[in-house]
Amino acid sequence: MSIPVRTSVNITVRSAAKINLHLGVGAPRDDGFHPLTTVYQAVGLCDDLTATLPGEQDAPWDLRLRVADYIDPGAVPVDDDNIVARAATLLAAHHGVPVRGHIDVDKAIPVAGGLAGGSADAAAALVALDRLWDARTSDDDLLTLAAELGSDVPFALIGGTALGTGRGELVTPLPDGGTWWWVLVPSRDGLATPDVYRHFDKLFPDAPAVPPPADELLDAVASGDPVRLARLLRNDLQEPALDLRPDLGVLLERGESEGALRGIISGSGPTCAFLCESSDHARDLAGALMRHGRTVVLVANGAVAGAHLVENLHG
Ligand code: ATP
Is the separation of the CB atoms in 119 and 143 below 8 Å? Predict the structure, then answer.
């Protein structure tokens, strides 16, 4: 009998894109952040992050990126500015250990698309490196570190459908009675989130201090009825995003005229998200949009899990 010898340990974590079913935005706080009442949903468009311990001869830290063919690799930094590197540094400092790991990120979530792809990678890095280093970080500490990395990162850890308050970092899971089908249409050129918020401030100088609530929409989510949900979708960043990118308004109208229950801008855009009645409906709509010349049209369902371990993809 031979005993298998493990020469290296690989940890692969999958983490999902989000859309905002409700994004109520208030006037900027003293710290510059906008208060939000948001309903996040994690959808089945995912990045995979694999972390491996380096050998003795290897560099202690290495980050490699492989991107889907619709993503410009030049849009994502691979140095210390990558949010994965920032997550590693933060987790290591929390435990007082050196940063170690070879990281491979397989990106399918469009960059600067309003889908929180960077946040998904940050959440994946926290979960993977916590395992790789056997650091045993408590859930509360992971959520605190996540919030330091970005407002959407705590939700990327939790997934499902959830209410976000504060600047989005305070997350409460919600009852969700549906399987929701989305058609997502990314744009080649991203929209920088700070630019969209700046434009929001210009368009709405009298925004309320308390962001608009999502109460009715929460009932629709619990009911599982997509027709009801479609009526209640709301994104306060849609107007500024469309003002900056009028072409997106044309796309939203096209999707709705082709039968989407509703089209909205995802987060700060520019990705357009179309809610459909079923998987068949979503596939039909995707086909129609492709016939109208859109080359990248993705179908995803929600809600899916937050950052979680998956079977090893890298041997
Ligand atoms: P959000 O909706 O949370 O604002 P987004 O989907 O609009 O996010 P991201 O894809 O998270 O935007 O990217 C925002 C910026 O972060 C990019 O312009 C990119 O340069 C930088 N960035 C750093 N690390 C990553 C990463 N791992 N993946 C994607 N972008 C990253």
Answer: no
Query: Which protein residue has the closest C-alpha to ligand 1 atom 1?
Result: 116
pTM above 0.90, yes or no: yes
- Out of 15, 45, 76, mutate this one to test ligand 1's pocket (max ligand atoms within 8 Å of CB): namely 76
Q: Is 258 in the pocket of ligand 1 (CB under 6 A)?
A: no
**Is 141 a residue of the active site?**
no
Give which of 249, 276, 279, 286 is closest to 265, Cα–Cα: 249
pLDDT digits (tens, 9 = 90+) for 43-92: 999 999 999 999 888 899 999 999 999 999 999 999 999 999 999 999 99
The answer to whether 10-174+304-310 and 180-302 have equal CATH topology is no
Question: Domain 10-174+304-310: which CATH class?
Answer: alpha beta
How many other β-carbons are positioned within 10 Å of the β-carbon of residue 187?
20
> In the chain, what are the domain boundaries?
10-174+304-310, 180-302
Superfamily the domain 180-302 falls into: GHMP kinase, C-terminal domain (3.30.70.890)
Pair 9, 41: CB distance under 8 Å = no
Query: Is 152 part of the annotated catalytic residue set?
Result: yes
| 110 among annotated binding-site residues | yes
Give the pLDDT confidence of 272-302 residue by residue, as tens digits.
Answer: 999 999 999 999 999 999 999 888 999 999 9
